[in-house]
Predict the 3D structure of the following.
Amino acid sequence: MTSTIFLSSFTGALLGTLLLTIGRHQWRQSQARRWLGRAIAIALYLGSLLLLQLQLDSLQAFFTWLGMLSLGAMPAIFLSPRLIATKTD
Amino acid sequence: MQRDTLKKFYIVHSWVGVITGILLFIICFSGALSVFGSPDLKLWSNPSLHTKTSIDPAAIDQLVERYAVDVPEALKHEVMVLLPGAEAFGDLYIWFESEHGPEEQAIALHFDPSTLELIERLEGNPEVIFAQSRAVLTMEQFITQFHANLHMGKLGLILTGLLGLTLMASIVTGLIIHRKILKEMFTFRPWRSLRLMLTDTHKVLSVWGILFHGMIGFTGAFLGLATIILLPAAALVSFQGDQEKLLETFQPEHMPRLSGEPANMSIDKVLRHSLSLGGVTRSIIILGWGDKNALAFTNTVNVDGTGEMASETHNYQLSSGKHLARATAFEMVGGVSGPVLDLIAPLHFGAFGGLTVRIIWGLLGLSTALIAATGIMIWVERRAYGAEGKLSPENYLRLNKFTIGSCSGLVLACASLFWSQRLAPEFIMALFFCVWAMSIPLAFSMKNNYQSNRLLLGLSGAMLMCVPFIDALTLEHHLFNSLDGSHNHLAAIDATLLCIGLALLGIAKRLPRARREEQHKKGRGTKALKPSNEEVADDFLEDQPPAADIVA
């Protein structure tokens, strides 16, 4: 249960950042798609925080979430050139 | 902001980074390991903790009573029981201490946590006993102490504290000079050039982890400078320089008013209640031993993120075992400062939400170390192959070799700690510094920086990969006989080391053997053009990402 929560929270942070990155670089023409991407990313981030609150006390969940955001975002950014390049090729 | 002001901040950022970069890498990398110090590395280092040991309150009660009989009354001013366990003090220790002062004396008893047999008895000045008991450090104690003070005592503490401040200065100047921060957050261009890859990595790691890096800088500066500068300063302002009085005022532990009536000491009841509160009970301090009004103070820490974030002290009447009160370490400071001070240590060490938080903190700590290393590499790239710098490229490349020798050498030295813990535990410190010192000439002896890095990382990977096999040869419990489930934690650590070793070997194999030739020539060509002053100063602005660069 615990590992599932933490892994889901990490995945939320990673996918949220990946969506923001793709939106920023790929969906320049479509504002609607860009904003939808942003809304989903924010929902994923919030979901990630809420999941952590199931397991941890609020303050600790918040600090863990801040760490999780950074940790999820870094691989998302480093992976993005591969994913975006594959899409456009 | 004016361009000239920006350039000044850029110069401050790059020079602060290059001067403190290697030291920052050392502190951050050792910090990332220290996060796992307790309980993971402590458990791995101590064979007595490999199988689960439980605390028996009645047995500990009897043990303290039995040994207290032979201790002189003067040494029962303060009785401390340091409890066993990977999240506490490893083995069981009982200390009998006289009143604080220049004539302070103590008796320290060290017990096996499972059999409760006396292993060692030390007597004398507490500081001398403490130094004697730490004469042979375990690898976990070595690395956490190395992170805290580089094994340089007070000077080391000041140095690490100051490094926390320089980290914060680098963050502030970095924020000022990077004007397109939103764009930089989402930009990574790995295939353009080495320099762009380095700058993008540096920026992505810095910007996404900015809150963590800032928090680590602030809390690290506080922890480093607190006991050396802040505590004496606070005592000077409010207590005429009397630090003992300041600590007595704000610490939850206080001496009771003694009644003179003897009474039985119910350590058993106190310990039972404390263990029932959740979290881990680490120690009991008893003041007024043998008296009806004697007080016991238990120290508990939250390890799974469900209780209080800060460690707590529970106060008991020892004769009855009645729970009187609870307080956090800095609660008595009051105001906003108390809760903030309470958060500093758990936040710095990630000691509040179990293994997951330790993994997050460890990886983010590694990212802080990588920021320092990539910062130096960018500085060298811009000078050896770019428009900046007045020296020949060879001089800058020498600095790069030294950086690789120190930084990748530290990784190798840390990997060697796992070997020395098992094969030569008395020489942990000597072997660590030998391996580290030898890495630097090794880095210089290779043909180029790329090969030095490959070699040192490959060696680190090979060393870590072998750790489970060394365990299998030297220990009763190890990864390969863990199916019975009696030592899962040790087996998990061994398996993790094996995986990290394999990953490092894979990374070393994939790293290039030399710099790409066309970049090299282009770089030297640029250098030969003798850039104008404007070009040199504007160089940092060139690395700012243009729109939609990532797809190119």
About this structure: Strands of chain B lie at 78-82, 92-97, 106-111, 118-124, 280-287, 295-301, 312-317, 322-328. The radius of gyration of chain B is 27 Å.
